[in-house]
Amino acid sequence: MRRLLALAALLLPTVHAAPSVRAPNLAVLNQGQILCYDAIVEIDRKEDAAKVGRAEEQIAAALKGLGLRAQEFDAAERCHRVLSFTFEMDNVGAPMLYKASLELQSLMAYDGDVNTNIVTVWEAEHWGADRGEITPARVSSIFSEVLTEELQTFKDDYRSLASAGKRT
User: Is 44 left (phi over 0), alpha (psi -120 to 50) or beta?
Assistant: First the structure.
């Protein structure tokens, strides 16, 4: 019986999350525009440079794994699209609150004008709370879990374009 169950487990298809409603919008990534990535991480209203670096490394790896060429926003001369991760947490006093988002933004400037319009093309968001302050280890754990989950949503949505015939 155990062998039969083990065999059945191998034969069952892998279940992937359904694409989000905004998944088709990711087709803009295939228009030959310059793609950049960025991260903003603030814990108690202070930038956490180490977590920014980790987030940017993971975003870069995710984009590379999808075959998308991208450069870090601050190092780029120009960007048309930006995949931006923002993580903000207030952990002083009670309750602990956090909000996180991963957004693909389209930057549009007209005729070299200084004014730039930013349009959110795709996004994933999370928020959470705890009754009291949490340990630095738990802060890092929440940060990692949320970043991983939002990047997985992005990857799943982008890969869904291939099955819908919208990606070459």
Answer: left
